[in-house]
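Appendix C reproduces, verbatim, an entry submitted by the partner laboratory led by Prof. M.T., so that reviewers can inspect both the input and the predicted structure.
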Amino acid sequence: MIRAMRTAASGMLAQQMQVDALANNISNANTTGFKREALSFRSLLYRTYRHAGGANGQSQSNPTGLQIGSGVEVSSSHRLHVQGDLELTGRELDISISGNGYFALQMPNGELRYTRDGSFRSDANGAVVSVDGFLLTPPLTIQPGVTEITVDQVGIVTGRTADGGTTQLGEVRLFTFPNDAGLEARGSNLYVETPSSGPAVARQPGDPGTGLLRQGFLERSNVQVVEELIALISAQRNYEVNSRTIRVGDEMLQQISNLIN
């Protein structure tokens, strides 16, 4: 009974972490560029009472073994980098990615971080920055007097000058990784590369394996609230069943205690 209670407790802990992950997904259902997170589970160690294929007392081998597991644990979490819906905003510096790739932002310490959030602004110097003021990389500056900013699908940025002509302001580059799932989230819609993700590779939008840009759109979260709620209900039921197992084990221990007394 003690083993059953500990096994059930591991299941309750795993389901609690599942609920935590689902709650984070649901709370970010309207976060621009957010990618939902999923947990993976694995069984804990098994106690073997009889080996499959081992000899029995009749000089025959056991066709099956006898093993009892000791529960479950969360083995890892991974983000599902699936395309979210594109929402029309009409703002000149709202840029979404249709396909693979990330924007790069330069932190104050010079470190690069990556995002799917294309909500950009221009600062007092005309530099294009994120909503938190981090510089877009490669740098892009809107010169004084330039209006009607246009960003085409392959990242060429142009604007209209005061004399009615057009001028190229720069280019928007995307960055891809050998393993997107290996990126580490740091909050504020930002990711950092890790040894698992591999190094960032700068690409022009539209290159093979790289998405295209859509000006005036933002990528919505890829969280499907209905699916998350169904998973939440399932996790709740699993939690309840494991708690019931603990109660059953406690009742059995009480019966044994009554027999002894």
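The longest strand covers residues 72-79. Additional entries are available on request from the coordinating office.
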